[in-house]
């Protein structure tokens, strides 16, 4: 048996999320169907992270074991002939038996895109959060720095997932001004459920002057979900990359 | 009565094109519906150019006359509350009585975007033409220069529209390399039916080595549609701007 690692890009708009669901289309189901068509096998697919409905991915990772003799690098091409147009396997490789997309990951990079203009874009509304106000990017930069480092992020988590620890490390959090688009990029060793979207909502609240940048350390320390900003909408979020040590 | 000029952006994917059709959704119909809801009037809407099914616009222009007392600049906001998300009125102004979106136009700018990569993008396939081959951009640049100036473009026109003259002037035709995206931008005093898409298809044929750049002047002169490249697919085309003298 071979362990095959897939790197997958998808537009999440038409899906109920990564995870298989009985009565709604999921990315996982589309991939399982394609793998079944290509190999004849019903496999178990291990994804690096569950993206929610409407969330996109450029570099999602998943792995599965197969008895198929298809050369590992050929899976990308073969699966793409069976997949819908909004899901593409960018690469496929054979990896060691003990590689697990989720447990072997040492970090992740997410991007969140804001679209700041009086009128919403008719082109990119399924990739951005439309903000009518002009944001104070300098204040957002100051606030962003306060999130970096290791913190207990229990106040920046939606309920609905059981985790042992709510301590996570954010390595970098940058804000790039490509007006009218503002792109947030966040890299960390792991993220709690909705953590990126709540941090984004909090940074936008800072940009609007509703939360002060200097209050961020206290808000993190409070562990109180009520003190942060709203959970930014799903469509602006993109899983950019899953990081592995080798 | 006031003559109101609208500047409109839209994603054309879900529409059968600009022009009203009885059994298919059109941009024109969506705008007429919105104008009716806002003013109570059934107006005649004059568009600067008919975009085909799947073609997008950033700066389409249309005008209509109205007895409504809504301040001209407010139409954009008012219409946007009634329009679907993939159509936005970016600006609205009162213009002189004799302004006509089509007949007053002195030029147009179109962009065409190619996506050159082995694997199609799951994000931008409704905005780009996917090309697997690596294109020879230098040869395409040489070919592009041959299109500039005033020529009889009867060989770069699809049948289906009656025109008095097939002579048009191309002012600029540039090719920008933002790999994997390649953007063609073309400005001229007017374009025949499918002219931008046939020129694009011909330039791509040059980029693939199927047509030689130095043969372009002869192909234009021949007036023979068979000698050019294919008609590039609709989804890569964007009407960027309609130019008026004042």
UniProtKB/TrEMBL annotation, chains A, B:
Reactions that this protein is recorded to catalyse: uridine(38/39/40) in tRNA = pseudouridine(38/39/40) in tRNA
Positions of the Pseudouridine synthase I TruA alpha/beta domain: 9-104, 143-245
EC number: 5.4.99.12
Keywords, comma-separated and alphabetical: Isomerase, tRNA processing
UniProt feature coiled coil, ranges: none
CDD domains tied to this protein: PseudoU_synth_EcTruA
Superkingdom of origin: Bacteria
The keyword Lipid biosynthesis is assigned to this record: no
Entries under InterPro entries matching the protein: PsdUridine_synth_cat_dom_sf, PsdUridine_synth_TruA, PsdUridine_synth_TruA_a/b_dom, PsdUridine_synth_TruA_C, TruA/RsuA/RluB/E/F_N
Signal peptide positions (record): none
Homology family: Belongs to the tRNA pseudouridine synthase TruA family.
HAMAP family: TruA
Summary of subunit composition and partner proteins: Homodimer.
Name the record gives this protein: tRNA pseudouridine synthase A
């Amino acid at each position: 048996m071979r362990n095959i690692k897939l790197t997958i890009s998808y537009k999440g708009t038409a899906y109920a999320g990564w995870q298989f669901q009985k009565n709604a289309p999921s990315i996982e189901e589309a991939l399982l169907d394609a793998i079944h068509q290509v190999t004849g096998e019903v496999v178990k697919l291990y994804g690096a992270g569950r993206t929610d409905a409407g969330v996109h991915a450029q570099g999602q990772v998943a792995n599965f074991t197969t008895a198929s003799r298809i050369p590992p690098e050929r899976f990308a091409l073969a699966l793409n002939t069976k997949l819908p147009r909004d899901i593409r396997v960018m690469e496929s490789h054979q990896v060691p038996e003990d590689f697990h997309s989720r447990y072997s990951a040492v970090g992740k990079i997410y991007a969140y895109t804001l679209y700041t203009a009086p009128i919403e874009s008719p082109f990119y509304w399924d990739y951005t959060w439309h903000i009518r106000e002009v944001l104070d990017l300098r204040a957002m930069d100051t606030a962003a720095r306060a999130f970096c480092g290791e913190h207990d992020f229990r106040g920046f988590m939606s309920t609905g997932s059981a985790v042992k620890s709510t301590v996570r490390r954010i390595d970098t959090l940058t804000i790039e001004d490509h007006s009218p688009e503002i792109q947030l990029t966040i890299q960390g060793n792991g993220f709690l459920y909705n953590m990126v979207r709540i941090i984004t909502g909090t940074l936008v609240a800072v940009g609007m002057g509703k939360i002060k940048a200097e209050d961020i350390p206290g808000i993190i320390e409070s562990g109180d979900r009520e003190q942060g900003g709203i959970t930014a909408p799903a469509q602006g979020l993109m899983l950019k990359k899953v990081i592995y040590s080798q």
